[in-house]
Amino acid sequence: MEIPYTVSPRPDTGLTNGKIAIWLFLASEVMLFGALFATYVMLRVGATEWPAGATYLNIPLAALNTVVLISSSVTMVLAWASLAKNDFGRFRLFMGITILCGFGFLFIKYLEYSEKFHHGYLPSTNTFLAIYFTLTGIHGLHVIGGMVVNGWFWGPGSGLWKRDPTHFTNRVENAGLFWHLVDLVWIFLFPILYLL
Amino acid sequence: MDPEASAGEHDGAHDAHHEPLGFWRKYVFSLDHKVIGIQYAMTGLLFLLFGFTLMMLMRLQLAFPGEAFPILGSLFGEARMPGGIMLPEFYNELGAMHGTIMVFLGVVPLAVGGFGNFVLPLQIGAPDMAFPRLNMISYWCYVPGGLIMLASFFVPGGAAQSGWTSYPPLSIIAGQGQSFWLFGMVFLITSSLLGAINFIVTTIQLRAPGLTFWRFPFFVWSQLVTSFLLLLAFPPLEAAAVLQLMDRHVGTSFFLPSGLVVSGEILQATGGGSPILWQHLFWFLAHPEVYVLILPALGIVAEIVANNTRKPLFGYRSMVYSVIFLGFMSFIVWAHHMFITGMGTTMATFFQTTTMIISIPSVVILSALLVSLWGGSIRFNTPMLFALGFLPMFGIGGLTGLPLGLSATDLHLHDTYYVIGHFHYVVAPGTIFALFAGVYYWFPKATGRAMNETLGKIHFWGSMVFMNVIFMPFLIMGLAGVSRRLWDGGASYAHAQPVLHWNVVSSVGAWCLALAQLPFIYNFFKSAFRGKKVGSNPWEATTLEWATPSPPPHGNFTTPPVAYRGPYEYSVPGSARDYSPQWEPSGA
Amino acid sequence: MDAHDHAEIDRHVKAALFVFGALLVLTGFTVGAYYLKLPTHLAIALALLIASVKGSLVAAWFMHLLSERKLIYWALILTAVLFVPLLLIPTLGALDAVRLN
Fold first, then answer.
1. What is the residue extent of each domain of chain B?
2. For chain B, how many helices (H) and strands (E)?
């Protein structure tokens, strides 16, 4: 039994099922991070004193991480574009770079976190660090999730390309939307936590 | 009456394409929305029964506070009922878990997971949900969540006992069971999010040709709005649950204020947090959640009223606009649960105003359903009895909400039995009646057999009477100022003495209500095996789910359906029959 | 895939590369603004402004939102509208609250 509009869009909505689904999921993610940002705002406004980001955080490393994520977003677009132009080899190249950028991001995060733990800066130290670790931690989990999905498409999942190239291209496009959201969240996280 | 269709027979040619599925893939990890819907429904009903049992224990304590119950004492042990006398901590466990289980493990899985999954694809003429595997995963996230909740009863210190609302600081310093609650919630929220995405995509994309949005049965509209509520309101609670877990286990203080004193000693915590923050994040979900509880019920009642008055619904368009407006407004009323937190007048005014406004679409929908009865040829079968019973009960529930939504009166009524009376009227003889109605109505479609009408009527009348015996006294006790969550039902308060006797009345009502459910349970299982067989459209209904055999085959429709008209074309002038189904071309 | 579609995709890629450049520049602005050491309220406003511009670029071009369908727009507008009270009410409530001192 075939579910319609999995691969080709439904004429009146102009959308595939997967495209709507991923945007709905992103909407729910906006609300998830919204709650965490609301927490940040309320705790900061209610605090008698609030440390500047630079007191605990490494701005140059985080700025580098921002560049890493933005670059990975571009390579994600290029990966999808390669598929759309029937070039599987270039897809693997660009998707591979995207995943490597993800590893880069996580590695820099590891450097940041271990530096803090080394100094005894923990989530329990104060409210600023609590929300810092939580926001970046949950964001980091989303980076890992995105990398798992991207890795699947790069590796074992790529068999779908031979069976149904359009379906595979759509799936990579939808995965790309998730990855861009992860980038988008960081674009706000970085100045808010580190620079304000 | 439609001729007896071949109930349950599969399309032979269709089956030739599929290898037979093994037991696990067919019954446990099925991808078929009908199987998944039944799984959700059965699991939900089981949890409703369990939650009901917790309540009966509570009512024993409330009727006879401080009395010894030796048999129960030996069952629950010295930690919970030393000498057979219920400890306050045990009472709090029962209270917190009764609420949690009824809302998250009972009503929503049955109303949304059960009825939504089973009926929605059929009502829009779809072969299944848009994402069958995601559907299966949703169910299998719900079950572990439920099991974690149940497991929490067995950990040292017992289950969560800080109310279903889990307010800090109490919930932060509470025992292990609270962490189980938080973990369980993460699973349940994930299940709902995945399900919501599935429902929305399915409704928009997989509807049959000719089924425009304005031809949707009201049930479809109510499930669609419900799904948006789940999608956008649940994530903040998921975030909050993580934050509370961190406060409990990692030493953060998102919700712990500085200088907190526990049992005469300053709590060793980082401090700087806000308990009010939790309340905002919790209620941001929990208010839309109560609309998740009522909207599917309104949808079910609408279907049954139209079918059993043999008339179109009055004010269908107004009902649709109202349910959409209601869904939107439900996101901006939440702080009416927080009027006594020291809120300033600006906040209070804002939330009072939105709360008063949200009562308007509710009244429109209820009124439309009531007016729909006027001039109808009413058939008083069991689904219709429950639907009719729902209407005034929901009316009482809604009206009692008004003094709670106004800040001035809420100051006196907050956290009293009045609140418990209000929301139980809406959910118990409200939503649960609608769910019973739905079971009697769609049972023939799901099983190909009818339930027994006599047993159904006994179930209805017993439930109707005893629901009111239980909950009407709550309104009286609440107005007298008896607080909720008191393990002795107010016995130690002077102002409660004149109304204490109502506790006994309510408790007797609860145990009689339990007895009234026995005919239902018996009827349900006996009819599943021995009920009278029915055809595809035993109720002579007009919506698409009745176009296919009972039970529907794999793939739902033997020929792809087309919708030719609106959902409630009953008693069309000039027509030979008193119903014109959506799927029959004109002139049929 | 025909040449017409390929041209469309090439345009999209070109736009994405432009956006990449813009994002790098704006990231520079973000960090640069920090070193301006503005008063807190101005710093917040500026940081959020730049971040919003960056975010809009990602949404419009990387996520292809500029040429998306109405249905998606409506879902996102609904989300954006509901995001605002979630973000602001807890804090506004705390600021409006009754104080004893």
1. 32-255+272-547
2. 20, 2
Distance, in Å, from the CA atom of B63 to the CA atom of B55, rounded to the nearest integer, reads 12
Q: Are B141 and B238 in contact (CB under 8 A)?
A: no
Average pLDDT of the residues in B240-254:
97
CA angle A107, A109, A110 (to 5 degrees): 65
Could you say which DSSP state residue B68 is in?
B
Q: Distance from C22 to chain B by nearest Cα, in Å?
A: 32
pLDDT at C2: 55
C81-96 residue pLDDT tens: 999 999 999 999 999 9
**What pLDDT sits at residue C1?**
45
Give C92's contacts in chain B (Cβ within 8 Å). 347
| Three-state secondary structure call for residue B266 | strand
**Residue B263: partners with Cβ closer than 8 Å, 6 or more residues away:** none
- Indicate yes or no: CB of A86 within 8 angstroms of CB of C1: yes
Across the interface, do B239 and A1 touch by the CB < 8 Å criterion? no
Rounded Cα–Cα distance for residues A161 and A70 (Å) = 27
Give the mean model confidence (pLDDT) for residues B485-489. Answer: 96
Instruction: Please report the domains of chain A, with CATH numbers, ordered by start residue.
Output: 17-195 (1.20.120.80)
Most distant CA pair in chain B, distance: 81
pLDDT digits (tens, 9 = 90+) for A50-72: 999 999 999 999 999 999 999 99
C-alpha distances in angstroms, B366 versus B89, B397, C42?
40, 12, 51
Q: Which CATH superfamily is domain B32-255+272-547 in?
A: Cytochrome c oxidase-like, subunit I domain (1.20.210.10)
CA dihedral B394, B399, B401, B402 (to 10 degrees): 160
* Chain B 121-180, residues with CB within 8 Å of chain A CB atoms: 127-128, 130-132
Contact B531, B551 (CB under 8 A): no
- Is the reported ipTM for this assembly greater than 0.90? yes
Q: Does B281 touch chain A (CB under 8 A)?
A: yes
HEC profile of chain A: CCCCCCCCCECCCCECHHHHHHHHHHHHHHHHHHHHHHHHHHHHHHCCCCCCHHHHCCHHHHHHHHHHHHHHHHHHHHHHHHHHCCCHHHHHHHHHHHHHHHHHHHHHHHHHHHHHHHHCCCCCCCHHHHHHHHHHHHHHHHHHHHHHHHHHHHCHHHHHHHHCHHHHHHHHHHHHHHHHHHHHHHHHHHHHHHHC
Q: What is the pTM of this model?
A: 0.95
Chain A nearest-CA residue for C69: A14
The answer to whether B116 and B106 have CB atoms below 8 angstroms apart is no
Instruction: Give residue-wise pLDDT tens across range A155-187.
Output: 998 899 999 999 999 999 999 999 999 999 999
DSSP summary character for residue B174 = S
Mean pLDDT, rounded, for B494-516: 97
**Closest-CA residue of chain B to A2:** B127
Exposed e or buried b for every residue in C59-85, given b needs 16+ CB within 10 A?
A: bebbbbbeebeebbeebbebbeebbeb
Q: First and final CA of chain C: distance in angstroms?
A: 71
Other CB atoms within 10 A of residue B250 CB: 14
Q: Is A2 exposed, middle or buried (0-12, 13-18, 19+ CB in 10 A)?
A: exposed
- pLDDT, residue B588, reads 47
Which subunits sit against C, judged by 3+ Cβ pairs under 8 A? A, B
The answer for residues whose C-beta is within 8 angstroms of residue A22's C-beta and 6 or more apart is A174, A177, A178
Work out whether the CA dihedral B413, B418, B419, B425 comes out positive or negative. negative
B420-461 pLDDT, tens digit each: 999 999 999 999 999 999 999 999 999 999 999 999 999 999
* CB within 8 Å: B254 and A131: yes
Residue C37: is its pLDDT beyond 90?
A: no
Q: Pick the residue from chain A with its C-alpha nearest to B198.
A: A21
